[in-house]
């Protein structure tokens, strides 16, 4: 079912693109259209695919299939008088898939680095991703840090303040999110869009 | 004729896509039933040491192993039966050696994330337990691979096909350790090599498509990583995957390239019509709905017709060239 939805989405996208190329993204009189390449990085099972699924389709699956390689999804939203089209790469989290990651973050304008607030190791891994992006990704990349699974705050292992301090020191946007309850999911994507 | 007598899930418990063409499938199945009956008859004429590798057997395998013989045939053709009988350690003993908490934890996290939409996996009490045993036993006896995401899908399909835990374990072991080159180790070196090998093969066999994909700016790995890692599980319809695996167990990893080349050729026009990355990715994602892909019998014929002559020697030479 999910695959079929994605396919319909892809088909809708293709149509949108065809008319889009006729108008050209910039310089049209009907408000600005901007395209945005965004990549999600982070340890396995922190909720990368779930955040994307919530943002793109407003859905949540308790058990989201593990992502192999990467998944590509798009979402178009209106911000003031600008139409923003997100092209989202949702990557595989397991450490050994790391060598494939550069092709997904290369040329990305934004990245969401995700960790699980109930698991300290995933926060460490998030910091490693931030460092790698700062060194290897394009210098203007906007990086957001998402502390996901906020609905499980009673099992919290990473303090909000600790992550906020780290984000401030590194110039990152930061929010705690919950793909399950939808808390801050649209917000974090929109904050990046701005 | 009624619109369709087929359920919304396939015989292995997977949901069919929302836009599944039941009429086309009806037509295909009415022919395919006759094919299956004929293949079963033909297989029953095989006498003596029937798994001795001969041209006849190779042809028989390419035309599909009857499903009631699949488990036995896969075990013999892949070398898994030999692994099992010559192993100094039994499977039940291997299961007793499962003790590494870190490996246990990552496998446990992936269990409910393996085929959550399949009607058997989430409801059956035994299947997830069997999947855990196969993956954990495998990870403990092969430290270089351990657990690699993707193996859950392969082991899951092996369980659905054979309905037997121990058989699935030996088949997984034969696949990962003998039939496929180092796809799943920590560096994934074998995968990275084979991605480059496919790149070069397509440059040779389909230069126009190759140039187009290059111009659109899609690295091959974006479209094909899952083909190699999951052996087309989660990529193509289940019965089509099993027909590919019939050949994979007999002929080895070269089959992956043949299927990949054929898929690209079948979708040549669609690919050439794309003009940007999102469209191109969508085209790769939609390949499972192609008429020929659903008609697994026709598909396998096309695979061998379209991919021409591809020798193991040629593949090995390219692998050495692109070795990581």
From TrEMBL, chain A:
UniProt cross-references to Gene3D superfamilies, sorted A to Z: P-loop containing nucleotide triphosphate hydrolases
A Pfam family per the record: Ras
Keyword tags: Nucleotide-binding
InterPro entries reported in the protein's UniProt record: P-loop_NTPase, Small_GTP-bd, Small_GTPase
Domain of life: Eukaryota
Family: Belongs to the small GTPase superfamily. Rab family.
Protein name: Rab5
Annotated source species: Molorchus minor
UniProtKB/TrEMBL annotation, chain B:
Domain annotation Rab-GAP TBC: ranges: 64-252
Pfam families: RabGAP-TBC
SMART domains the record matches: TBC
Position of the signal peptide: none
Superkingdom, taxonomy of origin: Eukaryota
Gene3D superfamilies, A to Z: putative rabgap domain of human tbc1 domain family member 14 like domains (1.10.8.270), Ypt/Rab-GAP domain of gyp1p, domain 1 (1.10.10.750), Ypt/Rab-GAP domain of gyp1p, domain 3 (1.10.472.80)
InterPro entries noted in UniProt: Rab-GAP-TBC_dom (IPR000195), Rab-GAP_TBC_sf (IPR035969), Rab_GAP_TBC_domain (IPR050302)
PANTHER family found in the cross-reference section: GROWTH HORMONE-REGULATED TBC PROTEIN 1, RAB GTPASE-ACTIVATING PROTEIN 1-LIKE
Record's function text: May act as a GTPase-activating protein for Rab family protein(s).
Protein name: Rab-GAP TBC domain-containing protein
Organism: Molorchus minor
């Amino acid at each position: 079912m999910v695959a079929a939805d994605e396919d319909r989405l892809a088909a809708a996208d293709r149509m949108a693109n065809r008319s889009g190329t006729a108008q050209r993204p910039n310089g049209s009189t009907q408000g600005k259209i901007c395209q945005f390449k965004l990549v999600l990085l982070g340890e396995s099972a922190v909720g990368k695919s779930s955040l994307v699924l919530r943002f793109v389709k407003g859905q949540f699956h308790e058990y989201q299939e593990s992502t192999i390689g990467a998944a590509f999804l798009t979402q178009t939203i209106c911000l003031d008088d600008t139409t923003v089209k997100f092209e989202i790469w949702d990557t595989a989290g397991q450490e050994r898939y790391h060598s494939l990651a550069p092709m997904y973050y290369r040329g990305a304008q934004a990245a969401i680095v995700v960790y699980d607030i109930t698991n300290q190791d995933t926060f460490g891994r998030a910091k490693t991703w931030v460092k790698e992006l700062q060194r290897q990704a394009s210098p203007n990349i906007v990086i957001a840090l998402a502390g996901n699974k906020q609905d499980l705050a009673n099992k919290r292992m990473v303090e909000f303040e600790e992550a906020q301090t780290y984000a401030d020191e590194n110039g990152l946007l930061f929010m705690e999110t919950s793909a399950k309850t939808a808390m801050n999911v649209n917000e974090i994507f929109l904050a990046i869009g701005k | 004729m009624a619109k369709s007598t087929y359920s919304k899930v396939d015989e292995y418990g997977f949901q069919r896509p929302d836009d599944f063409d039941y009429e086309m499938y009806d037509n295909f199945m009415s022919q395919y039933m006759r094919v299956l009956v004929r293949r079963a008859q033909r297989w029953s004429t095989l006498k003596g040491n029937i798994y001795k590798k001969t041209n006849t057997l190779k042809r028989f395998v390419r035309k599909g192993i009857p499903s009631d013989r699949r488990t036995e045939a896969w075990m013999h053709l892949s070398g898994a039966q030999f692994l099992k009988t010559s192993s100094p350690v039994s499977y039940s003993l291997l299961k007793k050696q499962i003790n590494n908490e870190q490996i246990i934890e990552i496998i446990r996290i992936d269990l409910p994330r393996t085929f959550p939409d399949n009607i058997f996996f989430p409801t059956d009490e035994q299947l997830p337990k069997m999947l855990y045993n196969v993956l954990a036993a495998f990870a403990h006896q092969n430290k270089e691979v351990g657990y690699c995401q993707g193996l859950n899908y392969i082991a899951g399909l092996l369980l659905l096909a054979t309905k037997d835990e121990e058989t699935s374990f030996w088949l997984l072991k034969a696949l990962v350790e003998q039939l496929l080159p180092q796809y799943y180790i920590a560096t994934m070196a074998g995968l990275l090599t084979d991605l480059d090998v496919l790149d070069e093969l397509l440059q040779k066999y389909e230069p126009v498509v190759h140039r187009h994909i290059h111009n659109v700016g899609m690295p091959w790995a974006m479209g094909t990583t899952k083909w190699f890692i999951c052996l087309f599980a989660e990529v193509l319809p289940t019965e089509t995957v099993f027909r590919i695996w019939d050949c994979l167990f007999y002929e080895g990893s070269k089959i992956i390239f043949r299927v990949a080349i054929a898929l690209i050729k079948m979708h040549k026009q669609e690919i050439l019509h794309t003009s940007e990355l999102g469209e191109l990715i969508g085209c790769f994602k939609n390949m499972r709905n192609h008429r020929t892909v659903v008609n697994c019998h026709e598909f396998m014929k096309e695979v061998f017709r379209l991919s021409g002559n591809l020798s193991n020697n040629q593949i090995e030479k390219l692998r050495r060239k692109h070795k990581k």
